[in-house]
Amino acid sequence: MSLPVLNIQDLSIHYQTEQGPLQALRDVNLQVPEGKIIGIIGESGCGKSTLISAIIRLLAPNARIGRGSVNFKGRDLLRLSRDHMRALRGDEISMVFQDPMTSLNPVLTIGRQMYDVQHRSAANRAEKTARSLQMLDRVGISDPATQLQRYPHHLSGGMRQRVAIAMALMAEPDLLIADEPTTALDATLEVQIIHRLKELQREFGCSILFISHHLSVIAELCDEVIVMYAGEVVESGSVRDVFIDPRHPYTQKLLECDPARIAQRTRELPVIEGSLPNLVDLPGGCIFRERCSHRLARCGEDRPDLSGNQHQAACHLLDAES
Ligand SMILES: Nc1ncnc2c1ncn2[C@@H]1O[C@H](COP(=O)(O)OP(=O)(O)OP(=O)(O)O)[C@@H](O)[C@H]1O
Ligand code: SF4
Ligand SMILES: [Mg+2]
Asked: For the purposes of burial, counting CB atoms within 10 Å of the CB of 103, is it exposed (0-12), middle (13-18) or buried (19 or more)?
């Protein structure tokens, strides 16, 4: 088994709000092995973006890290200086967000930006331009020579996102973090981009942490999946194990709403009855108990720990089974 590029241990983060501390993440553990694609799924508000913001140290000003570590290639990112972290972002860790304009500069041509992103390479200008052309072609952009002369606002949303992905990979990062990169695109485009991304990931050998609401995208792209609920990891394992044999009632509900939905390519996560608990005033016991149809007496008092080896889930039903 390969070593993790990213190893998050017991990470807890809260936001300071007028109502009191909002517990956005609690005791999150997550590993991204070298060369693997790890997906994160969970309803809106479960803490996916907070987790990513913590890794790249771009948390909102009212966020506070309670405890934990974010180890990237042997360094705890939470303890790195700002300058060191800034240098690492974009070089060793690249990001792609839902809005490609977050990663593109509106006043520079695509060609200039693709040239700049290769600053670590010893290649000359002509070689770098050739590489930009090749990357645009690889992400499926036709007539790359013309596109290099254009500005981001000349391109469609789908093309901009392809350019953002091409640039993120050209930096040859060890870790690419993608937060809903294809959610705003139409389904056909999304499939195309996912296929290209998978091909390129194999070629470049980087690890990817990929967030999506779309179960089908996670199933197609990822090696392993982390299921989050209300700030906690409730299940994790290989895509195959989690999608074929989900162990946590939350994951089961996500998948059983429509068994065909993994194959089908749906736009959103299924809607599960009830709502997320109030993160400012958390209930004791299992975080999912208000919405769980299997709950036991102890679920109101004891918080279940993750159990299992490669395939883990946090549910008292699993203790009863073993
Ligand atoms: N700056 C902030 N101040 C207060 N609360 C916040 C702040 N940012 C996020 N939250 C809250 O923290 C929780 C986790 O939010 P987060 O954005 O990480 O979720 P998410 O899983 O990325 O959701 P989505 O799928 O909608 O992007 C939510 O309850 C959210 O309302
Ligand atoms: S621990 Fe209890 S409430 Fe929580 S998911 Fe399992 S059965 Fe449901
Ligand atoms: Mg988010």
From this structure: buried
Token pair for 212: 């999506």
Mean pLDDT of all residues in 275-304: 93
Q: CB under 6 Å to ligand 1: residues?
A: 15, 17, 22, 24, 42, 44-50, 60, 62, 279
> CA 123 → CA 15, 86, 94, 111, 120, distances in Å?
45, 24, 20, 15, 9
Give the residue ranges of DSSP H helices in the chain: 48-55, 82-88, 110-116, 125-138, 144-148, 157-170, 187-204, 215-221, 239-244, 249-256, 261-264, 316-321
Confidence of residue 320 (pLDDT cuts 50, 70, 90): low
For residue 61, the ligand 1 atom closest to its alpha carbon is 1
Cα of 48 from ligand 3 centre, angstroms: 5
Residue with the nearest Cα to atom 3 of ligand 2?
Answer: 289
Residue ranges per structural domain of the chain: 4-92+176-188+200-321, 103-172
Sign of CA dihedral 267, 269, 275, 276: negative
Alpha-carbon distances, residue 137 vs 110, 145, 242, 253, 282 (angstroms): 14, 10, 35, 40, 50
For residue 117, report the phi and psi dihedrals to the nearest 5 degrees: -70, -15
- Among 19, 77, 74, 26, CA closest to 47: 26
User: Would residue 133 be called left, alpha or beta, if left means φ above 0 and alpha means ψ between -120 and 50 degrees?
Assistant: alpha
| Residue closest by Cα to atom 6 of ligand 2 | 315
- pLDDT 10s digits, 162-216: 999 999 988 889 999 999 888 777 878 888 888 888 998 998 899 999 998 888 8
pTM of the model: 0.92
Q: Does domain 4-92+176-188+200-321 have CATH number 3.40.50.300?
A: yes
